[in-house]
Amino acid sequence: MFGRSSASDIAAAYPEAGPALAEAIVEVAGRMGVPDPGWLANLMNFETGGSFSPSIVNRTSGATGLIQFIPTTAAGMGTSTSALAAMSQLEQMRWVEAYLENKVPAG
């Protein structure tokens, strides 16, 4: 059986995330019923190329941020990729949670 990642586990595994984002990841995962917050951290690590930068942009698709919001998705959520790119990690986590609430099946 696998353990549940803590904020300190995430911060140690992904120093670029930092402790505040690691804590936010744990909180969001907990509210969403994600069994291991490390899964969400792994997703963000992959999508940002390990930078955990809310402003990182895919040159091909224009996808932006911690989970690579595409422009049409951002617009459908009432924002834009440029607005998302201007946010801090913690500000963008609210948008990550809002997006994933519609994508993750209820516990």
Q: How would you describe what is shown here?
A:
It is a single chain. With 107 residues, the protein is an all-alpha fold. It has 6 helices and no strands. It has helices spanning 7-13, 18-32, 37-47, 71-76, 81-85, 89-101. The protein is globular and about 35 Å long. The model has no long low-confidence stretch (mean pLDDT 93).
Summarize the structure.
The chain is mainly alpha-helical and 107 residues long. The chain has six helices and no strands.
Strand content: under 5%
Tertiary shape = globular
What is Rg?
13 Å
Which parts are unreliable, with pLDDT below 50 for 5 consecutive residues or more?
none
Helical content band: 40-55%
What's the overall average pLDDT, rounded? 93
Number of helices: 6
User: How far from one another are the termini?
Assistant: 19 Å
How would the blueprint of this fold be written?
Elements lengths: L6 H7 L4 H15 L4 H11 L23 H6 L4 H5 L3 H13 L6
Write out key terms for the chains shown.
107 residues; mainly alpha; 6 helices; 53% helix; globular
